[in-house]
Write a structure and sequence with these properties.
Structural class of chain B: mainly alpha
Oligomer: heterodimer
Shape of chain B: globular
Strand content of chain B: under 5%
Number of helices of chain B: 11
Distance between the termini of chain A: 59 Å
Radius of gyration of chain A: 25 Å
Helix content of chain A: 25-40%
Distance between the termini of chain B: 31 Å
Largest interface: A-B, 34 and 28 residues
Largest sheet of chain A: 6 strands, mixed
Amino acid sequence: MIEVEHITKRYGRVTAVDDVSFRVERGEILGFLGPNGAGKTTTMRILTGYMPPTDGRATVAGYDVFTHPVDAKRRTGYLPEMPPLYPDMTVREYLDFVARIKGVPPKEQKDRVTTVMKRTHIDDVAAKHCSKLSKGYRQRVGLAQALIHNPEVLILDEPTAGLDPKQIIETRDLIRGLAGDHTIVLSTHILPEVAQTCHRVVIIAKGRVVAVDTPEGLKARLQGAETLYVQVDAMGAQAAPVLQAIPGVTRVTVSDHRTGVDGFEIESARGTDIRREIARAVVNSGWGLLELRPMGMSLEEIFLQVTTEEGAAAPAAAPEAPDAVQPETPGGVQ
Amino acid sequence: MNSVRNILAIAGKELRSYFASPIAYVIIGLFALLFSRFFYAYLMVFVQRSSGMMGMGGGANNINQEMIRYVLMNSAVIILFVMPMITMRTYSEEKRSGTIELLLTSPLTDLEIIVGKFLGAMGLYCAMLAVTVAYMGILFFYGNPEWRPVVAGYLGLVLLGGCFISVGLLISSLTKNQIVAGVITFAVFLMLWIINWSADQSGPTMRAVLNHLSIIDHFDDFARGIIDTKHVVYYLSFITFGLFLTAKSVDSERWRG
């Protein structure tokens, strides 16, 4: 449904998007994830025909957005980062206007406006001026605007930004309900959103695609190593070399260091379970074993890892600050 | 057909946004006020002169040439001052508020958007001129001016206004800040008006070029009641060129991002 092939966008000397390629299948929800300034908005603007790419091509619903912009735009609904509302129009006037310029046939216009207002829960503000709307309503009017011509493709730039938790849940449900009939690309920097709404995730950092996968696949793939958190009371001795010497351990990182308590993150090859070996080594050394638990990787950590990997050449070798990861230690030792 | 519908949708939106804000009312009110001042002044001069002439046994003066012509000439200058207020926000406001993203991602061509905006501004401008028709009505009610020269004069005003609007659109498309757009538009209009004031000191070729460029000079014949194709072509090509440059400006903005 959407094909992006080697898209590059340069603003003068700055490269905002660098050789980005991905595909979105019909009825799929693709999450576009990346830190601010990663090139999400630029990519979306290229897909919607707002600006042409410096290089590469993009096809939406079978139409090249650059050579057949009107055909592509007729099949695309777009919610920009800032909902494009006219302050002096009422919500209904605004949607009427958008319906007209999006090519909704005059006979269907009234029906479409009523339908999308219901669907996005904005019928109660139909007669209000757009300038008087709260952020949450503005966002939803923006979403209604994107849906008005019932487009095959929906491109949503941070659709839940500025909404309260209840509205976020409603909007997510709405977006999930739209999948199937519509193909959706949404950008966000809220990670749980991706896990809850999207079928597939494209992670973008510094203008490059760093990972494309399902949310589950991403978790699995990045957990190439099993990580255990171990907290010991080494009685003043150096515990790290001893732990490093345990067969199967690939990497030991100090994550916590206080008097009497040392926390380590121990990585081993995937699929191995070395908890017994660690326990034995600690006990044999005569130390106190305070805690030993496997560490799951949250999406946040995956995200951080993937997006920073690009900058740091060898992430595995990069020394971590001792308190880079602060595992929540229940109960508080001491 | 589709194009017409799109253009009308944009034009309607523009017109509504003028009348939904105080802009339209301020502009029309201001214009009517200035127009009435000139109208009254020239009417008084005309009445005095005419009664003087009749006292000396001559016939009445020609009101078309002695009064309406000057009133129309002066309206052209008032329009020059008022017009930047109409055009300054057309593009810059859309850019500032981000609504330009809606227009540029809708199935519209740049030309449809530009022509729509042009017609919207023309609509407000014509509403502004319509107010002055009431004043002319007074002359027709109490006197008997020729109507054809008056129509020619109004045609000239419409064309002249079209030129101003096309330049105003272009300048508005270059900036996000409507105040900047307004000030620059005003400066450019003034330049287009006074460009031939020093023409007499320059050589014959230069003088001809400068006189040709002076946008208000072309209005002279219209005010007299003459429709000269030369001037009609000048104004129409001026408008086309202005809109063409606006299209280029919008397109280049798209490439630069």
